[in-house]
Structure prediction request, 240 residues.
Amino acid sequence: MIWKLLLAHVLADFILQTKKLAIGKLVFKNNFLHCLILLIISSVFFMNQLSVKLLLMIITITIFHGFIDYGKAFVEKKAEGKWNWFLFTVDQFLHLLFIILSIGLFYPLVIESYLAIFTDIVNSIAIFKIAVFFCIISFGGSYFTASICKGFNPNKKIEESKVEKNSLDRAGRYIGILERIIVAASILIGRYEIIGFLIAAKSIIRHQEKNEKAFAEYFLIGTFTSFVWAAVFTFLYLKL
Prediction:
Protein backbone atom coordinates (compact mmCIF):
# COMPACT_ATOMS: atom_id res chain seq x y z
CA MET A 1 0.00 0.00 0.00
CA ILE A 2 2.64 2.51 0.99
CA TRP A 3 4.63 1.91 -2.21
CA LYS A 4 1.65 2.71 -4.41
CA LEU A 5 1.02 5.92 -2.46
CA LEU A 6 4.69 6.88 -2.65
CA LEU A 7 4.78 6.21 -6.39
CA ALA A 8 1.71 8.39 -6.85
CA HIS A 9 3.43 11.13 -4.85
CA VAL A 10 6.64 10.88 -6.89
CA LEU A 11 4.76 10.96 -10.19
CA ALA A 12 2.66 13.95 -9.15
CA ASP A 13 5.52 15.92 -7.60
CA PHE A 14 8.44 15.23 -9.94
CA ILE A 15 7.19 13.94 -13.29
CA LEU A 16 3.71 15.25 -14.02
CA GLN A 17 4.13 18.62 -12.29
CA THR A 18 4.72 21.48 -14.71
CA LYS A 19 6.93 24.45 -13.93
CA LYS A 20 3.86 26.67 -13.68
CA LEU A 21 2.32 24.41 -11.04
CA ALA A 22 5.60 24.05 -9.17
CA ILE A 23 6.16 27.80 -8.70
CA GLY A 24 2.50 28.78 -8.36
CA LYS A 25 1.38 26.84 -5.29
CA LEU A 26 0.19 30.05 -3.58
CA VAL A 27 -2.50 30.30 -6.27
CA PHE A 28 -5.47 28.11 -5.31
CA LYS A 29 -6.12 26.99 -8.89
CA ASN A 30 -2.57 25.69 -9.38
CA ASN A 31 -2.46 23.97 -6.01
CA PHE A 32 -5.88 22.41 -6.57
CA LEU A 33 -4.89 21.10 -10.01
CA HIS A 34 -1.69 19.58 -8.60
CA CYS A 35 -3.64 17.85 -5.83
CA LEU A 36 -6.25 16.65 -8.32
CA ILE A 37 -3.51 14.97 -10.34
CA LEU A 38 -2.27 13.25 -7.17
CA LEU A 39 -5.81 12.14 -6.31
CA ILE A 40 -6.42 10.67 -9.76
CA ILE A 41 -3.10 8.80 -9.87
CA SER A 42 -3.61 7.37 -6.38
CA SER A 43 -7.16 6.27 -7.21
CA VAL A 44 -6.03 4.57 -10.41
CA PHE A 45 -3.35 2.62 -8.54
CA PHE A 46 -5.99 1.25 -6.14
CA MET A 47 -8.71 0.79 -8.76
CA ASN A 48 -9.11 -2.97 -8.11
CA GLN A 49 -9.44 -2.57 -4.34
CA LEU A 50 -11.07 0.85 -4.07
CA SER A 51 -13.47 1.24 -1.14
CA VAL A 52 -15.03 4.11 0.78
CA LYS A 53 -12.40 3.87 3.52
CA LEU A 54 -9.54 3.71 1.03
CA LEU A 55 -10.95 6.63 -0.95
CA LEU A 56 -11.27 8.69 2.25
CA MET A 57 -7.63 7.93 3.05
CA ILE A 58 -6.51 9.04 -0.42
CA ILE A 59 -8.56 12.24 -0.13
CA THR A 60 -7.06 12.92 3.32
CA ILE A 61 -3.53 12.48 1.98
CA THR A 62 -4.34 14.74 -0.98
CA ILE A 63 -5.75 17.52 1.22
CA PHE A 64 -2.72 17.48 3.52
CA HIS A 65 -0.49 17.41 0.44
CA GLY A 66 -2.06 20.68 -0.70
CA PHE A 67 -1.64 22.33 2.71
CA ILE A 68 2.01 21.27 2.90
CA ASP A 69 2.73 22.59 -0.59
CA TYR A 70 1.01 25.88 0.19
CA GLY A 71 3.00 26.23 3.42
CA LYS A 72 6.27 25.51 1.61
CA ALA A 73 5.47 28.07 -1.08
CA PHE A 74 4.57 30.66 1.56
CA VAL A 75 7.81 30.12 3.50
CA GLU A 76 9.85 30.15 0.27
CA LYS A 77 8.37 33.54 -0.63
CA LYS A 78 9.24 34.95 2.79
CA ALA A 79 12.74 33.46 2.64
CA GLU A 80 13.32 35.06 -0.78
CA GLY A 81 15.02 32.04 -2.33
CA LYS A 82 17.17 31.13 0.68
CA TRP A 83 17.32 27.61 2.15
CA ASN A 84 15.47 26.08 -0.80
CA TRP A 85 17.24 22.74 -0.33
CA PHE A 86 16.22 22.65 3.35
CA LEU A 87 12.61 23.57 2.59
CA PHE A 88 12.50 20.89 -0.12
CA THR A 89 13.77 18.28 2.37
CA VAL A 90 11.25 19.30 5.03
CA ASP A 91 8.49 19.34 2.42
CA GLN A 92 9.22 15.78 1.28
CA PHE A 93 9.59 14.56 4.86
CA LEU A 94 6.18 15.98 5.79
CA HIS A 95 4.57 14.37 2.74
CA LEU A 96 6.03 11.01 3.73
CA LEU A 97 5.02 11.51 7.36
CA PHE A 98 1.40 12.28 6.51
CA ILE A 99 1.20 9.30 4.16
CA ILE A 100 2.35 7.05 7.01
CA LEU A 101 0.02 8.73 9.54
CA SER A 102 -2.92 8.40 7.16
CA ILE A 103 -2.25 4.69 6.68
CA GLY A 104 -2.00 4.31 10.45
CA LEU A 105 -5.29 6.17 10.94
CA PHE A 106 -7.30 4.16 8.40
CA TYR A 107 -5.39 0.86 8.43
CA PRO A 108 -3.63 0.47 11.82
CA LEU A 109 -2.80 -3.21 11.23
CA VAL A 110 -0.93 -2.34 8.03
CA ILE A 111 1.20 0.30 9.74
CA GLU A 112 1.94 -2.14 12.59
CA SER A 113 3.38 -4.61 10.08
CA TYR A 114 5.49 -1.85 8.53
CA LEU A 115 6.77 -0.82 11.96
CA ALA A 116 7.72 -4.41 12.73
CA ILE A 117 9.69 -4.64 9.48
CA PHE A 118 11.36 -1.28 10.17
CA THR A 119 12.31 -2.40 13.69
CA ASP A 120 13.90 -5.57 12.33
CA ILE A 121 15.91 -3.53 9.82
CA VAL A 122 17.13 -1.10 12.48
CA ASN A 123 18.11 -3.96 14.77
CA SER A 124 19.93 -5.79 11.99
CA ILE A 125 22.20 -2.90 10.97
CA ALA A 126 24.49 -0.70 13.01
CA ILE A 127 22.37 2.42 12.46
CA PHE A 128 24.23 4.53 15.01
CA LYS A 129 27.61 3.43 13.70
CA ILE A 130 26.55 4.47 10.20
CA ALA A 131 25.25 7.83 11.47
CA VAL A 132 28.51 8.58 13.29
CA PHE A 133 30.53 7.55 10.24
CA PHE A 134 28.48 9.78 7.93
CA CYS A 135 28.79 12.82 10.23
CA ILE A 136 32.55 12.36 10.60
CA ILE A 137 33.09 11.85 6.87
CA SER A 138 30.93 14.76 5.74
CA PHE A 139 30.90 17.52 8.36
CA GLY A 140 33.95 16.52 10.38
CA GLY A 141 35.96 16.39 7.17
CA SER A 142 34.82 19.93 6.29
CA TYR A 143 36.17 21.41 9.51
CA PHE A 144 39.41 19.41 9.37
CA THR A 145 40.13 20.32 5.75
CA ALA A 146 39.31 23.98 6.38
CA SER A 147 41.63 24.09 9.42
CA ILE A 148 44.48 22.55 7.43
CA CYS A 149 44.01 24.90 4.47
CA LYS A 150 44.03 28.00 6.68
CA GLY A 151 47.74 27.56 7.15
CA PHE A 152 48.30 27.55 3.40
CA ASN A 153 45.88 30.27 2.35
CA PRO A 154 46.90 31.92 -0.95
CA ASN A 155 47.59 35.63 -1.00
CA LYS A 156 44.69 38.05 -0.78
CA LYS A 157 44.68 38.99 -4.45
CA ILE A 158 44.35 35.39 -5.64
CA GLU A 159 41.81 34.58 -2.95
CA GLU A 160 39.59 37.47 -3.91
CA SER A 161 39.77 36.88 -7.64
CA LYS A 162 39.55 33.08 -7.65
CA VAL A 163 37.63 32.13 -4.55
CA GLU A 164 35.21 34.94 -3.88
CA LYS A 165 34.41 36.52 -7.24
CA ASN A 166 34.23 33.37 -9.35
CA SER A 167 32.84 30.92 -6.78
CA LEU A 168 29.38 30.18 -5.47
CA ASP A 169 28.73 30.93 -1.82
CA ARG A 170 29.98 28.02 0.33
CA ALA A 171 30.20 25.84 -2.78
CA GLY A 172 33.60 24.49 -1.75
CA ARG A 173 32.21 23.06 1.46
CA TYR A 174 29.41 21.19 -0.30
CA ILE A 175 31.76 19.96 -3.02
CA GLY A 176 34.07 18.63 -0.30
CA ILE A 177 31.21 16.81 1.43
CA LEU A 178 30.10 15.20 -1.81
CA GLU A 179 33.61 14.16 -2.82
CA ARG A 180 34.26 12.55 0.58
CA ILE A 181 31.00 10.63 0.31
CA ILE A 182 32.04 9.43 -3.16
CA VAL A 183 35.48 8.41 -1.89
CA ALA A 184 33.97 6.53 1.06
CA ALA A 185 31.41 4.80 -1.16
CA SER A 186 34.13 3.81 -3.62
CA ILE A 187 36.17 2.18 -0.86
CA LEU A 188 33.14 0.46 0.66
CA ILE A 189 32.20 -1.18 -2.66
CA GLY A 190 35.82 -1.83 -3.62
CA ARG A 191 35.81 0.32 -6.76
CA TYR A 192 38.94 2.41 -6.21
CA GLU A 193 39.06 3.52 -9.85
CA ILE A 194 36.16 5.87 -9.10
CA ILE A 195 38.52 7.91 -6.92
CA GLY A 196 40.88 8.24 -9.88
CA PHE A 197 38.04 9.50 -12.07
CA LEU A 198 37.09 11.98 -9.34
CA ILE A 199 40.64 13.36 -9.14
CA ALA A 200 40.78 13.62 -12.94
CA ALA A 201 37.45 15.45 -13.06
CA LYS A 202 38.55 17.99 -10.45
CA SER A 203 41.84 18.52 -12.26
CA ILE A 204 40.05 19.24 -15.54
CA ILE A 205 37.69 21.69 -13.87
CA ARG A 206 40.59 23.53 -12.22
CA HIS A 207 42.79 23.44 -15.34
CA GLN A 208 42.35 27.17 -15.92
CA GLU A 209 44.10 27.97 -12.63
CA LYS A 210 47.26 26.05 -13.58
CA ASN A 211 49.24 29.29 -14.04
CA GLU A 212 48.37 30.47 -10.52
CA LYS A 213 50.89 28.38 -8.60
CA ALA A 214 49.77 29.49 -5.13
CA PHE A 215 46.14 28.75 -5.81
CA ALA A 216 46.95 25.42 -7.50
CA GLU A 217 48.95 24.31 -4.45
CA TYR A 218 46.14 25.47 -2.15
CA PHE A 219 43.65 23.49 -4.22
CA LEU A 220 45.78 20.32 -4.11
CA ILE A 221 46.29 20.55 -0.35
CA GLY A 222 42.56 20.85 0.20
CA THR A 223 41.72 18.04 -2.20
CA PHE A 224 44.21 15.52 -0.86
CA THR A 225 43.44 16.39 2.77
CA SER A 226 39.78 15.76 2.07
CA PHE A 227 40.53 12.47 0.30
CA VAL A 228 42.85 11.22 3.04
CA TRP A 229 40.29 12.05 5.72
CA ALA A 230 37.60 10.09 3.88
CA ALA A 231 39.90 7.13 3.19
CA VAL A 232 41.23 6.85 6.74
CA PHE A 233 37.83 6.90 8.42
CA THR A 234 36.32 4.55 5.83
CA PHE A 235 39.00 1.95 6.53
CA LEU A 236 38.48 2.47 10.27
CA TYR A 237 34.75 1.96 9.75
CA LEU A 238 35.44 -1.34 7.97
CA LYS A 239 37.77 -2.56 10.74
CA LEU A 240 35.75 -1.53 13.81
User: Anything to note?
Assistant: The chain has two domains: 2-123, 126-239. The radius of gyration is 24 Å. The chain has a mean pLDDT of 84.
